Amino acid sequence: MDRIYFTTPIYYVNAQPHLGHTYTTIIADTLKRYHRMRGRDVFFLTGTDEHGDKIAQAAAADDVDPKAYADRISGLFRSTWDTCGITYDYFIRTTDDYHKATVSRILQHIYDAGDIYFGEYGGFYCYGCERFFTEKELQGGKCPDHQTRAAYINEKNYFFRMSKYQDRLLEILNENPEFVTPQRYRTEVLALLREPLEDLCISRPRSRLQWGIPLPFDQDYVTYVWFDALINYVSALEHHGEDTFNAYWPRCNHIIAKDIVKPHAIFWPTMLMAAGLPLFHRLNVHGYWIMDKGKMSKSLGNVIRPLDMKERYGMDAFRYYLLREMVFGQDATFSMEAFVNRINADLANNFGNLVSRVLAMQKRYFGGVVQPMGNGDRPEDRELKQAFQEAANGVDRYMEDMHFHRALEAIFAALDRANQYIVQTAPFTLVKDPDQKPRVGEILHQLLESVRITGELLSPFLPETGAAVRELLGLPATDGLRAEWGGSFPEGHEVRPPRILFPRIEETEDAGE
Fold first, then answer.
1. pTM reported for the whole predicted model
2. Residue 147 confidence (pLDDT)
3. Are the C-beta atoms of 460 and 34 separated by less than 8 Å?
4. What is the maximum span of the chain, computed from C-alpha positions, in angstroms?
5. What are the angstrom distances between the C-alpha of 228 and each of 101, 215, 376?
6. Secondary structure (H, E, C), 22-72
7. Most buried among 208, 301, 311, 405, using CB within 10 Å?
8. How confident is the model over 194-217, as pLDDT tens digits?
9. Which parts of the chain sit beneath pLDDT 70?
């Protein structure tokens, strides 16, 4: 059986779950559902990153112990994903003992190999990013992400010989163009590698920071938070056993936002090389959600909360907007006006209305009992079938490249054809002629098949909707994805009366803080 491993970043517990976290996690969840429905064995990892300066500072501001603070925020992430129906297989915390043991083991291995050394370094440090920047990376002396002035710090620390692996990493990027995708981010990484790599400072003195994993070879220092956090992708699998690691790691797909490309595309592969571990399969990078002319963030006060959106509009509506509106790899703008327009047009008017019309006609004309489909040799029948075959093929094609918006476009193009088919065949007119009633039954059977396949294809994106469609059609739940046309409704099968899947939204007020 094909195996595949999807990871989100482990989310830093200095902020509660918001849109940025939710989008990345929904992507991983959608991919897991899709590949599982296609018969693949999928492992989906998420979790929380809990060490470092920012956590110690946040805990001190709340007048609590850092572990107690991390417990609270980590628990909030986990409960949020559970409430949102996210199907992760494992939730890792960097305060887990097995993870700390793995970090120590890898550090000791790299140290024993001579790739970690003690030295003194002065550089510009952003406390928000918890890393040093070169002067070239700063914008007017400020961190390009947080727009805060970087502090110059000079201290003795341990360093990882990252520069030793620069040429090898360049070879990998050139030999495997899909190692970092989309292409724009591979180009960004190659540009970073045109300059000599500096060695990576991988420790913080305990005189300045207590909250971290102590270095196994010097207890006066704790591990740099990125060196600790990145190892989670390995430690989580190893925690499940060597066989689990060997089975899933070769097909590891990391899913991240573009602000953490450098740690994932440069720090992480060089760390794996030094540790003697194989590299991950692919780094998949998405853009930012923009709101009010800036990246959505807690500090800017323009945060969209997933549980608020679920409560007010339903999780599937929220999922649909995020997956349909953003082109993977590019930035996208979130606005409540666009959200309302998209949900009303696509889900309420197009899909929801089609389902209601078809089920209502089936109930009114035949008491809900599905009639024979016929041979489907009429041109309009063949065109309808072809439209849904093309949609199924399109979903498979686009999902391979994480073009979620294109996959959804393909499904809704077929739905447009189904709506045209109703106008073209006019079953509501034909039914007035008793001699045409068998043809009306055929038309409705074709439309029910359209609804069924739509529900199947939408299931990875909108899981609650997929389940609701199966229930309305009187079909059992399934883990597979069957998009083949016909043979779904045995003789005498009865569908249920219609119900509203997506109520029209009349409000346009902002859902943020």
1. 0.93
2. 83
3. yes
4. 92
5. 11, 10, 60
6. HHHHHHHHHHHHHHHHCCCEEEEEEEEECCCHHHHHHHHHCCCCHHHHHHH
7. 405
8. 999 999 999 999 998 999 999 999
9. 1, 292-302, 508-513
Q: Which domains does the chain have, with CATH numbers?
A: 3-286 (3.40.50.620), 325-472 (1.10.730.10)
**Residue 326, C-beta contacts closer than 8 angstroms, at least 6 positions apart:** 23, 286, 287, 289, 332, 404, 405
For position 302, what pLDDT does the model report?
58
Q: How many angstroms separate the CA atoms of 511 and 513, rounded?
A: 7
C-beta of residue 158 within 8 angstroms of C-beta of residue 202: yes
The pLDDT of residue 452: 97
Question: What one-character DSSP code corresponds to residue 96?
Answer: S
The residues near 474 (Cβ < 8 Å, ≥ 6 apart) are 493, 494, 495, 496
Check residue 513 and give its pLDDT. Answer: 41
Write down the pLDDT at residue 322. 98
Residues annotated as catalytic (active site), given as ranges: 18, 21, 126, 129, 143, 146, 295, 298
Instruction: Check residue 506 and give its pLDDT.
Output: 87
Beta-bridge partners for 43: 5
The position carrying tokens 């703008």 is: 333
**Euclidean distance between CA atoms 381 and 332, whole angstroms:** 38
Residue with tokens 């180009």: 187
Question: Which pLDDT score is estimated for 410?
Answer: 98
The Cα–Cα gap between 296 and 15 comes to 12
- Could you tell me where the beta strands, DSSP code E, fall in 107-193? 116-126, 131-133, 151-160, 180-181
Question: What pLDDT shows up at residue 81?
Answer: 98
User: How far is residue 413's CA from residue 410's CA, in Å, rounded to a whole number?
Assistant: 5
